[in-house]
Specification:
The complex is a heterodimer of chains A (310) and B (270). With 310 residues, chain A is mostly helical. Chain A has helices at residues 3-6, 18-21, 26-55, 59-67, 70-103, 109-117, 124-135, 140-146, 153-161, 170-180, 184-196, 199-206, 211-240, 243-249, 259-268, 272-309. The longest helix of chain B is centred in the C-terminal third of the chain and has 37 residues, at 233-269. The two termini of chain B are 32 Å apart. Classes of the chains: A mainly alpha (310), B mainly alpha (270). Chains A and B meet through helix 2, helix 3, helix 5, helix 6 and helix 7 of A and helix 1, helix 3, helix 4, helix 5 and helix 6 of B.
Amino acid sequence: MTPAATTLRTPAAAPVSPTQSRSEPPWVRRLLIGVALAFLSLFLFLPLVSVFTQAFAKGLGFYLHTISDPMAVSAIKLTFLAAGIAVPLNCVFGVCAAWVIAKFDFPGKNILLTLIDLPFSVSPVISGLIYVLVFGAQGWLGLYLNADHPALPWLAGWLNQHNFKIIFAVPGIVLATIFVTFPFVARELIPLMQAQGRTEEEAARVLGAGGWQTFWRVTLPNIKWGLLYGVILCNARAMGEFGAVSVVSGKIRGQTNTIPLHIEALYDDYNFTGAFAVASLLALLAVVTLALKTWVELKNASLQSVTDNS
Amino acid sequence: MPGFKLTLGFTLFYLGLIVLIPLSAVFWKSSSLSWHEFWHTVTLPVAVASYRLTFGASFLAALVNAFFGFIVAWVLVRYEFLGKKLVDALVDLPFALPTAVAGITLATLYAKAGWIGQWLEPLGVKVANTQIGVFVALTFIGLPFIVRTVQPVLQELDPELEEAAASLGANRWQIFWRVILPMVLPALLTGFTLAFARALGEYGSVIFIAGNIPLKTQITPVVIMGELDMFNYAKATAIAVVMLIVSFLLLLGVNVLQWWTNRHNTTHLA
């Protein structure tokens, strides 16, 4: 017996009420709340406030001038384009992957689950690097285009003729964005659809609904909040990705700079206020993302309590 | 249930096209080096110094996050205070805030004249352009991992266990140490590993505050980036392979940990 265990018997005289037994003395509570809030203020609140303060350091005029600069506008457009392609594609993939994993049993399911998570554990710089190795001038595509006798000569000829480029061009940026946001939607939907099981879909099938009908009318309404949640997170990452895009973009101002790359360019030019002005757009996106996310969570929780009560 | 072939086919096709084939290019490229060249590249002093910094700072940041993240999760689950909902939502900020924005913000806050830097400067503590800067940035991005893995476990803890311990005469500290902590430990470990793994690969939030001085404040992703800028693709890939292997091992570790926890819990119930 340890010393602590032997002392367990002594204070039995005073019975402890259930609420008392689960709570600490007030000074401990206040101390812990204080420590938590101090830590969060230092690491979260202060940085967030500082982005907006720095952004307006030279006044509203400078702010508007910076974010309406042609280079900034082109960066904003490119970011929207990349996210606009990456998010819907990963959405379709997420629904497909969740459907096959949640509704069917097949060997190798756990391996598939792990592989879907893979992009999360790869450094952003490496995520960009792999596309350079595939599509770069020294990569697979480059070897193919420069080969003396390429397979499908018409394709190589057409690509060479049109000076088709993926790396240091927009397609590379889109691909890198797809890679880094790959698991987001799938990851939200898989546990959700696994928990929901397949009884509702089976009932719909028995009642004569077709495959697509079952999906649109039964599955989709059930997963819409989870899907929205995944899309919100996927979009935030797609618009904010820096490392991977930075490797494949070539950083040509006005052409292959996304918003995060434009921020870096301004910062490297010692235009700090300008960098923060553009950064405030992404910080605003982050705040909106968090607000939407909290809203979806609350909505989901209230829906759950309604179904639990009925 | 319909659609098995279609959905499995598309899932595998898309996974192969976007993730598996491009990732395999890393191993193809590094095989263009001989074993000797590979070993020489990955053990260059610049690379070794970067591993040391990346691992050390990531480990320390995950440790600090484990401590404070646990307190944050505890406070959010157990106590009531003004603005709790707001604080709870704000915890995810490092997930939502793009790394480049976090990077320039932290660099400015901790600069000599910055909001935080000006208080540290008289104490002789320099953060910007030092290894402490790397640690600060990695602490920022790892923060939500611990809170979000520990929080649900704390929420689901059965109050009866604590009441039973209390009625047997255990004091609050004993209950925490011997009843609560052992049950939360797997989640804490998972969160720690996730934060650590994320920190190892981090790039955007670190480069602005670190100053990227070779042998001193260069993290491994910056070394890879430097080789890429000089078009040394084979060298960059060799160092990337080292990082990938470590990341995969950590991913495996997390999966084994979760599998072990699940099994442990179910046998407990049975």
